[in-house]
Design goal:
Layout (H helix, E strand, L loop, with lengths): L1 H20 L41 E9 L2 E12 L10 E3 L3 H7 L20 H4 L4 E5 L4 E5 L24 E13 L2 E14 L2 E14 L2 E17 L4 E9 L9 E9 L15 E5 L3 E7 L2 E8 L2 E5 L11 E6 L5 E6 L13 E11 L9 E10 L4 E10 L2 E11 L5 E12 L5 E15 L4 E11 L6 H4 L5 E10 L5 E8 L4 E12 L5 E11 L5 E13 L2 E12 L2 E15 L17 E10 L4 E11 L5 E10 L3 E12 L2 E10 L3 E14 L2 E5 L6 E5 L21 E4 L8 E4 L9 E3 L3 E4 L6 E5 L2 E3 L1 E9 L2 E2 L5 E4 L5 E3 L5 E7 L2 E7 L7 E7 L10 E6 L3
Parallel strand pairs: 1-5, 39-44, 46-53
Antiparallel strand pairs: 1-2, 2-3, 4-5, 6-7, 6-37, 7-8, 8-9, 9-10, 10-11, 11-18, 12-15, 13-14, 13-16, 16-17, 18-19, 19-20, 20-21, 21-22, 22-23, 23-24, 24-27, 25-26, 27-28, 28-29, 29-30, 30-31, 31-32, 32-33, 33-34, 34-35, 35-36, 36-37, 37-38, 39-40, 41-43, 42-45, 46-47, 46-50, 48-49, 48-51, ...
Length: 861
Amino acid sequence: MPGLIMTSVIHSRLKVLALALSGACWSSYGCAEDYFNPAFLSDDAASVADLSRFEKGHQQPPGVYRVDIWRNDEFIGTQDLPFVAAEKTDPAAGGLTPCVDQALITRLGVNRQAFPNLTQTPDETCIPLTTRIPGTEINFDFASLKLSFSIPQIAMQNNARGYIAPDEWDDGIPAALVNYSFSGNRGTEDDSYFLSLLSGLNYGPWRLRNNGTWNYSRNNSQRESHWKNVGTWVQRAIIPWKSELVLGDSNTGNDIFDSVGFRGARLYSSDSMYPDSMQGFAPTVRGIARTPARVVIRQNGYVVYQSYVQSGAFAINDLNPTSSSGDLEVTVEEKDGSQQRYTVPYSSVPLLQRAGRVKFDVVAGDYRSGNTQQETPFFSQGTVIVGLDNGVTLYGGSQLAENYTAVAVGAGKNLGDWGAVSLDVTHARSTLVDDSTHEGQSLRFLYAKSLNRFGTNFQLLGYRYSTKGFYTLDDTAWRTMSGYQYDDKDKDADGVPDVISYHNLTLNKKGRFQVNISQLLGDYGSLYFSGSQQSYWGTHETNTWYQLGYSGGWQGISYSLAWSWNRAVGIPGTDRIATFNLSIPFSLFSHHGYRRDTALDRAYATVAASRNSDGQNSWQSGVSGTLLEGRNLSYSVTQGHSSTNGYTGSASANWQATYGTLGMGYNYDRDQHDFNWQLSGGVVGHADGVTFSQPLGDTNVLIKAPGASGVSIENQTGVKTDWRGYAVMPYATVYRYNRVALDTNTMGNNTDIENNVSNVVPTEGAVVRAAFDTRIGVRALITARRGNQPVPFGAIVRETQRGMTSMVGDDGQIYLSGLPLRGELLIQWGEGANAQCRASYHLPDKSLQQAITLTEVRCDR
């Protein structure tokens, strides 16, 4: 802080000096050359450096500066730009104006076709933008390094707000990645372990990925262990077509047909490459656990998610499925051995596109499923969606295989205040495993609407009706007309494996209804309703799942009620569960209101109770909260009672650390106890070494701040730079600006940084680098003397070993950061050998731990 004050004082004095030197001409017949008498600053003119460089009012030297660029009050990005001296500028600009070249004009989004005179200038020449485009203004604030352009709208290209030119998209650096998640449970009678690995290589725009899982289980002295390769694929962006190419194992989209797995090739339009476009929605898996339970989610036969939850209603909104679509099969394994199974539909909202937008998806390959009871026939699929005027969208497609042919056509319409709707019909001809041939149609209706005025959101409301002869491509791949799929690693006391799913092709799908509605109730909380029902030909049974919930709060107290009902064809039993949860902050009793400054204020008293259709009930009460300065350690301790297991208890904690996340839990009751844990994280190998991190996202940012160890990243819980100054910020947003900022309050006394903010625009799957210029060394305020006098005010100072520069202030004081413990300073106050001197210095080792070090040196010629 003293150094910053010193630098500010020097800057202020020089600014006043520059204004004085740039005074007006008083004679109407001519102007003499401006001259400033150094005696105004000191009685001894020799104690002031040669300040002739300020006589023209140029307060800052021309050169390249890293600035934040704004256009019409919209942030464009951060870039190194050359600046040249200018006579008529705002005082805040420091006498500088940017050199605008063709590349910068392109980045600003100027319509060159409307101004041919812009293209007549060579790329390297500075273009006078304010004269070439009338009405343009350029403002530069040197103190904040903010460069603002005000350009008339008529001169801009017709790009959507938020448009980022593809030239700014960053394919990232060559890198090797490993993302891991290891969970386990050790109980009184059985053990189970689950490992998920997602590894990959990045080179230029190419992404190579492999996803695999390992399962181990021990039950009644029986042990089973197996590895399953979920998928291997290569992917890259095709920027001119705004699309993605995938080669290998992947899944088709579900805009028109149901999503299926394949091994082959897919080329499809990428919504994320378009500004402000619909990104679709990620599935939110809701449910209710009567006891501390394990939640397993499968998609297309593969386990894509596994975690442990406490009793009560839960919502999983961070799911990263193997497919961009496809129904999710949810299993809730209760602590007492009972299970809930239901399916969460994962479909898209009505297929509306902007006028003129064409969205395509082409696939060719072998059908692929994690179910060993299905064949792998070759198939091809193509779909297209076209946006027309007046809010109309037309779409269609086909699926072709040896035993299957399907054609679909449909249309969508924006109904304005009435929401959005789409309607399509699919005609299919199928040959099943028993060589029977069938032909039929399926009609699908989708609707979405947000009633913001009333706080209502119909996220998805849909219905599909299929005739008796309609089958899907997935149906034709079964090896048998009916059968069960079992989970060999989960068995009951008699060694019988649990049932995962059931299929019966004689009971083909008939009607399917799905809904997801939420309603805000103002100060009284919110209400939601989600569910689906699938009916079949030949039976009155249905696959049904519904959940109704209510939540609210008052003065920091939160409460919720939830009710769930589910049933599946072919799997006996019906689950109906109701639950109640209450959370009361301890700060309510300490009269600190909504403050969460201490660990006690961040603690909550909790109560949970549940009851199912079999009359089983349970309740728990406990304490939960967060610990540590970064609030990255959460905990929960409960004690309760169950009608089936008597007394129960649990304790759990989750730590978001720098190099990964660790979760641990312990549960017990009258008959058994078990211990579970989950360890997850990522590893990134790059040109500068290996960096460990929290779990990686699909797209990530590698932070490079050499030597700046232990520095926190803003808005990233638990993320800090390692001992070398590297860190990984996971889950970057593709084709959008991602702000990466170092928290300067967490820097050590020996660390300074030129600019703590960087902005990157990654492409899909990239590892982009955000580099920061750091100064690692001593912060020092040095008083330099030449003979008995301080060195001249305003002299230029340069440390000869690392190149740090500064300027001499009052009484020969010099502030420098990033200094080595030993070195030499070159001080210049004019031209020639007689206007400079050198000063050697030697600082103690403890200077590296001090906020600022004060010392004196002698400057000799």
